Amino acid sequence: DAGVTQSPTHLIKTRGQQVTLRCSPKSGHDTVSWYQQALGQGPQFIFQYYEEEERQRGNFPDRFSGHQFPNYSSELNVNALLLGDSALYLCASSPGALAGDAGTGELFFGEGSRLTVL
Amino acid sequence: AQSVTQLDSQVPVFEEAPVELRCNYSSSVSVYLFWYVQYPNQGLQLLLKYLSGSTLVESINGFEAEFNKSQTSFHLRKPSVHISDTAEYFCAVSRKGSGNTGKLIFGQGTTLQVKP
Description:
The complex is a heterodimer. Chain A has one domain (5-117): Immunoglobulins (Immunoglobulin-like). Chain A contains no helices and 11 strands. Chain A has strands spanning 5-7, 10-13, 19-24, 31-37, 44-50, 53-57, 64-68, 74-78, 87-94, 108-109, 113-117. In chain A, strands 2, 4, 5, 6, 9, 10 and 11 form a 7-stranded mixed beta sheet that branches. In chain A, strands 1-3-8-7 form a 4-stranded antiparallel beta sheet, with no helix packed on it. In chain A, strand 5 and strand 6 (53-57) form a beta hairpin. Chain A starts with a strand and ends with a strand. Mean pLDDT of chain A is 90; it is low at 98-102. Chain B has a single domain (3-115), classed as Sandwich (Immunoglobulin-like), CATH 2.60.40. Chain B has strands at 3-6, 10-14, 19-21, 23-26, 31-38, 44-50, 56-58, 64-68, 73-78, 87-95, 105-106, 110-115. Chain B is globular and about 45 Å long. Classes of the chains: A mainly beta, B mainly beta. Chains A and B meet through strand 4, strand 5, strand 9 and strand 10 of A and strand 5, strand 6, strand 10 and strand 11 of B.
């Protein structure tokens, strides 16, 4: 049973560029959340996708956008990159409504995509 | 809104010694509580969780945490640590009863450094 997989694992971009990060949730999970973890900090919630719609959003600007596909995989897009966007981006999945186990907040995390903006 | 404070950024300890990593939270509503562990260059893994019932919860590798509602704390303890426990530990909360939230509020993390 594959866990949460993310790609790419590492990437380097320059200021002003755009980046797309990808995530496949754990088998049986239909809800995907994205987190940003800056160096030495705890993860910060960006947004969550369920049924191909953004359900909740943290305190991040509109430069951060996402998408969820019918197979529950998800993408995180960041436009007009800033130096401060350099971080580890974590994808997390949860079983949600399909498994009848909604609401506990337990998440399964991927290993992350480390973005460096120069 | 919820917030989480981990009171120690780094905790150095010798192997086989006991350890406590402290976590306090603030919330106007009931919450679920979690400890996650992050080994170097890896994602986060759930260590243990408190959802309801007994306030003392245990993990399979010897860690335990106790939910103290009056002190709004969820400290993590282990009676005897191993070198392999060296990692970053994150305390987190999520709002109870809110459906598919997926929204965890994390503390800043505590680096546990186990020395031989």
